[in-house]
Amino acid sequence: MTSSRLRPLIAGNWKMNGSRALTTELLTGLSALRGKQPDLAVDLLVCPPAPYLTLAAQLLQGSGIALGAQDCHAKASGAHTGDVAAPMLADCGCSAVILGHSERRADHGESSEHVATKAKAALDAGLTAIVCVGETEAERDRGATLDIVSAQLEGSIPADAEAGRLVVAYEPVWAIGTGKTPTPDDVAVVHAHMRSLLKAWFKDGAEMRLLYGGSVKAANAATLMHVPEVNGALVGGASLKADDFWGIALGAAG
Ligand code: PEP
To answer: Which residue, of 98, 127, 192, 193, has the fewest CB within 10 Å?
Structure first.
């Protein structure tokens, strides 16, 4: 049983990893695992790098596993060399896009205001926006976690967001790819705080799924996924192996 009545979402962020061969092997394996337990009460989403989205869409046909991307531009088209527009992602078979991941905030200087314009573009294109927030280690050490999360949430979510197409991922930066995780109590405090903000801002804020992300593995998934107000996971490294990713899905559903 998960901590709330919302159906868990397990989303895999492949980051800048993969190849045609890995995409084929991983998604063939994951589809087979899902096919053996189609009734497992968990939604699965995979977010490969942009060049592999079309291949992934073909491989996922009929699998019940959704496809997402890792970023989009705020504009629907135009002179933006190297960028990818939200309608293009929808055209390639995506139903969701990750936005404001801490690696993009750090590597590309994305502000929350910028993330909100991208999220608006995603919603306008019919995609679900998965908006990431989270504090750095220094921010945590000075006791600023809730302030940072509040400010990022308030700045990154468009005013017309709806529960069906807005997901928030709490990802402490210091937990991403490090093997470190907050305690379940610490996660509970942040998720309760985010839930209260979303309920205050949106009439359907109680229905918005709140993911935890940061070193989620099959071994810790059941514990983290049972924290109150945790409605799934955003998974990096462990999403690159079908068995590992599926193990997290089992932990979330169990
Ligand atoms: C992520 O990249 O969103 C992430 C949570 O990574 P990892 O699971 O590897 O910590």
So the answer is: 192
